[in-house]
Specification:
Strand order of the largest sheet: 1-4-3-2-5-8-6-9
CATH superfamily: Spore Coat Polysaccharide Biosynthesis Protein SpsA, Chain A
CATH class: Alpha Beta
Distance between the termini: 37 Å
CATH architecture: Alpha-Beta Complex
Helix content: 25-40%
Order of helices and strands: EHEHEHEHEHEEHEHHEEH
Largest sheet: 8 strands, mixed
Number of strands: 10
Mean pLDDT: 83
Structural class: alpha/beta
Shape: globular
Number of domains: 1
């Protein structure tokens, strides 16, 4: 199913990356409650026509055993290369696509997608082929087992399998240091493009997220932290494929947005108390 959204709605730990030989043992296992839970995966996409079909096929294969009832929503963020048409061509009823124009950034795409799905758990994963979708099963298993509100992928988790250029490692390490200095979050890696959430926690936090660009992930995690949400990290498998559409100027935009998030947080004293979820606090 495809939709188009118009301008008005066009419907339509440490700082050193580590490598290991595998992911967590029994990472794909879920309990009986998770088998009946509804999972929606939001995939923000920009100019991904060359790889989107392969990426979605890999995603569904990875989730087939533990989450057979998954629904995937691709958000075409102002794509002009036929990404939305490529998604439609798959003809898979588990996958839908929404398109809007113009391009508004990853954060806007995720907010749009999260507002359109109806699920108990919402996952977000980048549309390129860099992150192996098996990583998502590891995060989901951790979310279910721990009872956390959020589980995020971390490149520096000791069980992560990470292959990417040295310059990216240096830049990532510098940004982690900046984030740790400014925000004192209890997570080591805010930017890896795979995360899973309890839907109620995500929806509440998104009302306090004002960045739509590359610092969106940080802004979201700051909001979740200030709401008192339990956030855990899990390993990921990453093999840098050079398929990313991130422009070279992104670093300056991210720095600007990061400082804006820090200023807004300091001025407002956080984003407020966490919402009532109607379940026992001891579940965490």
């Amino acid at each position: 199913m495809d939709r188009t959204l118009s301008d008005t709605l066009v419907v339509g730990c440490n700082d050193t990356a580590r490598e290991s030989t595998g992911g967590p043992a029994q990472a794909g296992a879920v309990d009986g409650g998770a088998a009946t839970a509804r999972l929606a995966v939001v995939v923000p996409a920009y100019q991904e026509v060359r790889t989107i079909q392969r990426a979605l096929t890999r995603l569904l294969v990875a989730l087939a055993d533990s989450w057979p009832q998954v629904r995937v929503l691709v958000v075409s963020d102002g794509c002009t290369d036929g990404t939305a048409s490529a998604v439609s061509a798959l003809g898979d009823e588990r996958i839908s696509c929404v398109h809007y124009s113009p391009n508004r950034g990853k954060g806007h795409a995720i907010k749009t997608g999260a507002g359109l799905v109806d699920a108990d758990y919402i996952a977000v994963i980048d549309a390129d082929l860099d992150i192996d979708p098996v990583s998502l099963t590891w995060l989901l298993a951790e979310l279910v087992a721990s009872g956390a509100d959020v589980v995020i992928g971390s490149k520096i988790h000791p069980q992560s399998v990470v292959h990417y250029p040295r310059v990216r490692r240096v830049l990532s390490g510098g940004y982690r240091l900046l984030v740790r200095t400014l925000f004192r979050l209890r997570v080591a890696d805010t930017q890896t493009g795979v995360k899973v959430f309890r839907a109620d926690a995500l929806q509440a936090a998104l009302t306090h997220v004002h960045v739509s660009g590359f610092a969106f992930d940080l802004n979201l995690l700051v909001a979740l932290t200030d709401q008192g949400c339990a956030i855990r990290e899990a390993p990921v498998k990453i093999d840098y494929q050079f398929t990313s559409t991130v422009p070279p100027t992104a670093a300056l935009s991210m720095l600007r947005d990061t400082l804006a998030v820090a200023y807004r947080r300091a001025r407002n004293g956080g984003v407020g108390a966490r919402p009532q979820r109607g379940r026992a606090a001891t579940h965490r």
